[in-house]
Amino acid sequence: xxxxxxxxxxxxxxxxxxxxxxxxxxxxxxxxxxxxxxxxxxxxxxxxxxxxxxxxxxxxxxxxxxxxxxxxxxxxxxxxxxxxxxxxxxxxxxxxxxxxxxxxxxxxxxxxxxxxxxxxxxxxxxxxxxxxxxxxxxxxxxxxxxxxxxxxxxxxxxxxxxxxxxxxxxxxxxxxxxxxxxxxxxxxxxxxxxxxxxxxxxxxxxxxxxxxxxxxxxxxxxxxxxxxxxxxxxxxxxxxxxxxxxxxxxxxxxxxxxxxxxxxxxxxxxxxxxxxxxxxxxxxxxxxxxxxxxxxxxxxxxxxxxxxxxxxxxxxxxxxxxxxxxxxxxxxxxxxxxxxxxxxxxxxxxxx
Length: 352
Known about the structure:
Helices cover about 45% and strands about 15% of the residues. It is of the alpha/beta class. The chain folds into 2 domains: about 140 residues, no CATH class; about 120 residues, Alpha/Beta hydrolase fold, catalytic domain (Rossmann fold). The chain has a 5-stranded mixed beta sheet. Strands 1-2-3-4 form a 4-stranded antiparallel beta sheet, with no helix packed on it. About 10% of the residues have low confidence. It holds the Pfam family Abhydrolase_1. This is AB hydrolase-1 domain-containing protein.
């Protein structure tokens, strides 16, 4: 009994020591990454100006009080941003997550905490201000073009010439005699191939003769269009699925099978068309209960990307989510030169 109790105590002590070490190392590493990303911001601005002859905005740039041009106004207040009025046909009145342009560094968070604490001590009222991110405005106005740091191959730039206004949909099963429809929605960094090359070949002949299977490439993924004037909001995704699947194939009632990000879209469709859904199958749905009083988007951001060096997945997600310019550097090395890496991989593996 004493040996078992000592073992439990040892495990607890080691676990606590590991957590403390992880927190200490993480704090040091991410302070360095904050500084590196800050420097890279200026480095890329210089390169952008040198190569493209103009300063390019970024999501970490200082927010201005407001931008108004004609009927276009984009404002944010207390972690909630809204496009008040837009001439774009794709976006009219839409909520935008503040995580798109509000990713404060550790130093910024500490400063904000100290300032809020001082304001509470002085019992002063902090007035809310409207802020704007110029990169979002550039996207909404359709001013986004391929950059010098982007790959120039045909596949990577297919979005620049895309004029399609419907999604790619892979359809299998009887066209006229199908008794039921099943809509498959893939997850993040995926496509309809997730379903068509795994599930579809393994369905029985009875299923294939009974159900019409519709696997969609959601907006911006696979062979679907990647519009430059889109922020890929939930509403846009749902409307494109409605137009490309429900209306185009005259789907009245249907089953939905969704994975990861697709689960969010599936739930939105189910809420919008409650009488049309026969069943809803969600695989690995992302769900994070938010404590009362917490800003939902920022809380979930911290859960997904907790700024920890361990585990490795958390570190990778943190770098990708919090550091725009470090991520751009990684893309510059890997994505822009993907043809070189493909050649090297094929050469080493002898094209296996």
